[in-house]
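User: Hey, my collaborator sent me this sequence without any context and asked if I could get a structure. I don't really work with proteins. Can you help?
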Amino acid sequence: MQRHTNGGQNVRCIDTLAAMTGNIGTSGGGAQYAQLQTWGIQYHAMKMKPPAGTATEKDRIININNFGREVLDAQDPPIKMLWIACRNPMMQDPEAAVVKKAFESMDLVVTADLFMTPTVAMSDIVLPVTSAFETAGLNVSYWHYWLSLNEQAIAPMYEARSDLAIAMGLSARLNALSPGSCTYPTSGGIDEWLAAEFSPEFLAQFGLTHWEELKKGPRKAVKGLIGWQDSKFKTPSGKYEFASETAQTEGHELLPIWNEPMDVPESYPLRLISPHWKLGINSQFQNLDWMANIHHEPTVEIHPNTAKQYHVAEGDMVRLYNNEGEVRLKTHLTRTVAPDTLVVYEMWLKDTPFNINTTLHAIPSDMGKKATGSPGLAFHDNFVALVKA
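Assistant: No problem. I've predicted the 3D structure and written it out in structure-token form, which is a compact way to encode the shape of the chain:
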């Protein structure tokens, strides 16, 4: 719902309705979908003191939602080197053709990953990282109330290292070559790093006295299960603010208002949305053989009335295109989508060139900068034309 040019205001209006009717701070009120109360990790690496003698300039921020274009536009100095971990920008970022140009413009691209993704294929150096079976970690979410410990099951295979070990080793080497040149920590075992993610408040959230108690099994949060149950808000007044001066200073309206949706372009009359597939997370898992057996080729979900209008039937090949690019895929007729909307699930399909982000222009949504440093992306304000291939 928020992935539109008016998405932030839509959510703000709905939250205001919940507040007006007394449904914030109550079980099942549904004012927000994110359970941030149980997302209490400390981001240890970001808070450690840099190595002695470190003297670095201020970091330069690149908007992840318009990554390719911002890399190409960056000057003084231009970006010439990229390190990638836990990302697959060639498949996940908008304007896929621009992202490819950004990769080609750099002198060195290093990717740490487990699989041969399209991003890995575009890299100069590939570092194999450990899987969840080969290194310990924490499993926590802002979508549910559980916390669990992932314990190491086997020793790392071949030359694989964890992202943590790779980053610490690189930092140590850079500082040996040029003291103070790298701010990342250079030492610490996995147990030490796990322990550092727990504040007293985070432990209490799950009824723990020590993180190693998780070795006995997962724990469900014992408090904070209902957001804002205490009616305390992180606002200047401490109250729910219908009129928000903070929003106004960020360039938004003082009060929640209805903003019209983006106009539908005359040349591209069909809205194309690309939600997550129920068995995948972004570009993960689809490379597994058993997943490919379930869903081995891309399809576009289209309402039967729309299919009739465009003279296509179930299983026909169609071409979806706009001024960004095009994709070719089979139709699947269903009444679960609106007549003016097409649905293509975002995923990476192994051994195919398919990428729905080929058609996606990097249009920002209206909100998000205050919380994350950059606005969100209007993924679902993407419009295409359809023709039978």
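In plain terms: The two ends are 31 Å apart (CA to CA). You can pass these tokens on to your collaborator as they are.
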